[in-house]
């Protein structure tokens, strides 16, 4: 059995869950918080970086999410475009998601998550939102009206990007209408069974954050399923 250790809302962990489900592989997701002493102890057994996700499969232990996606692709013969050029495109897009999209959105998510609005650093949120808009412009051009980012099917590119778009929407900075290709792409990705099955449990209920006056109110974002 494959086990994935990590935090449900971590986009790197979500990426791996998507890959496993899209590949049709059975796995067990084990919530572990590396910010706690017990969590750090568990993660340190497998990850020299002390980060999540961690994937174990028998005697195999992996601690880098992109390598996990490659491993899943090898096990299942899926998630891979047919040509070398498109496979390189999928890897490059995954790298862009991890190293460019992620840092921009992190500024927004980390400021809004669990904080009253009065405590938000609005300048940091503005910087993150502007960076995210620049990412959308690049990704719109890269997608170029196609159904998938690399080749004719779901690949590592989708595994990496879907969690970023999901978190962006959940924290009130979803994809903008000026990028219709991305709007269509993300709408289609959300209809896939893997999206509902792997998205964080917090997405089924609106996050509640107190305002500066202490009033509780929901964030804008994904609404509870009906």
Count of discrete alpha- or pi-helical segments spanning 4 or more residues: 8
Assign the structural class, choosing from mainly alpha, mainly beta, alpha/beta, alpha+beta, or little secondary structure.
alpha+beta
Largest beta sheet: strand ordering: 2-1-3-4
Distance between the termini: 32 Å
Mean pLDDT: 90
Strand fraction: 5-15%
Rg, alpha carbons: 18 Å
Low-confidence stretches: 205-226
- Secondary-structure element pattern, one letter each: EHEHEEHHHHHHEE
Overall shape: it is globular
Number of domains: 2
Which architecture of the largest domain would the CATH scheme give at its second level?
A: Up-down Bundle
Number of strands: 6
**Largest sheet at a glance?**
4 strands, mixed
CATH topology of the largest domain: Glutathione S-transferase Yfyf (Class Pi), Chain A, domain 2
- Broad CATH class of the largest domain: Mainly Alpha
- Helical content, roughly? 40-55%
Multimeric organization: single chain
Topology:
Blueprint lengths: L1 E5 L4 H12 L4 E5 L5 H8 L9 E4 L2 E3 L2 H12 L7 H29 L9 H22 L12 H15 L9 H11 L2 H6 L9 E3 L5 E3 L8
Parallel strand pairs: 1-2
Antiparallel strand pairs: 1-3, 3-4, 5-6
Concise description?
The chain is of the alpha+beta class and 226 residues long. The chain folds into two domains: 2-76, Glutaredoxin (3-Layer(aba) Sandwich); 84-204, Glutathione S-transferase Yfyf (Class Pi), Chain A, domain 2 (Up-down Bundle), CATH 1.20.1050.
